[in-house]
Design goal:
- Helices cover about 35% and strands about 20% of the residues.
- It is of the alpha/beta class.
- Strand 7, helix 6 and strand 8 form a beta-alpha-beta unit.
- It is globular, with a radius of gyration of 20 Å.
Amino acid sequence: MLMSLVKTLSYGYRAGISVRHWIYDHLIVPEKLTVPVISIGNIVAGGSGKTPLVHYLASQIGPEKVAILSRGYRRKGKGILRVEAHMSAEECGDEPLFLAQKLPKAQVIVGKNRIETGRLMENKGLACLLLDDGMQHRKLHRDCEICVVNQVDIEQKNFLPYGPLREDPKRLKQVDLVIINGAETEELFDRAKQYIRQFSSAPIAAMNVQVLNAEEVRRKKVAVFSAIASPQRFYETLKSLGCEVIKKIEKPDHVAFAPDELKCLAQTKGIEALLCTEKDAVKLPKHFTLPLPIIPVQIALAPTFGNEHIQTIIKRFQT
């Protein structure tokens, strides 16, 4: 009975987004800013690699030449805020804080109304604005739209709440570039391309996660805490590094861990360290310490296939 209800809601969700997109395609003219906008989004709910891709694009275009516009999901602060590295995740959101810490020369702006935040960044000599998680934000005109999809999610067919889709794959026909995150082999990449070609003729590229501090965590016995959309992919990364995960605790995406929870986790017998993602690390209380080290696993995306398509877009906005 419950599953039938969830499936019915899924049909309603699909119909709703179809109507919404028809309205924006035919009746509403998006607001166009004087500075170019690159939208980075996805068609599924959860972690597909949007934020690491925003970081990569900002690094390549030039952090001092971009502003990153974010909604600041689950932040407690209100209004428009320029994120500084010393702030808390409660003030600005964990993903914006992560980006501000990783890209000190970039301007990271949070605000619910991204037309307003975008207008504030006009006339500042910027090369472009990066609209984080922007695929559903149709009110703002985008000069370039990039969709990033994780390899394991590429052939999903069910919509929220029955499945992970929050966009019809047909929406891919409107994007300028599709990036597959996690297509580690040419065979996987070709399979993903074949599926996407049903919906879009856009250029397709692939990127994979690289662990920047791999030697720091390799082959350690660890306990892990994570509050991300797809923790299983994080565990697979740790497994590839030879880590032995003795205990793990999870929370929903963006939720912080209490100090007492982490103190209890640190008492796990036989472990050498606590591991977490960088997004979890920015939510830790300032000056928080434990007898064992807490090591954020530092990752970055690197192109694997179709890099020429990625570089074409980067060069377009560098000049």
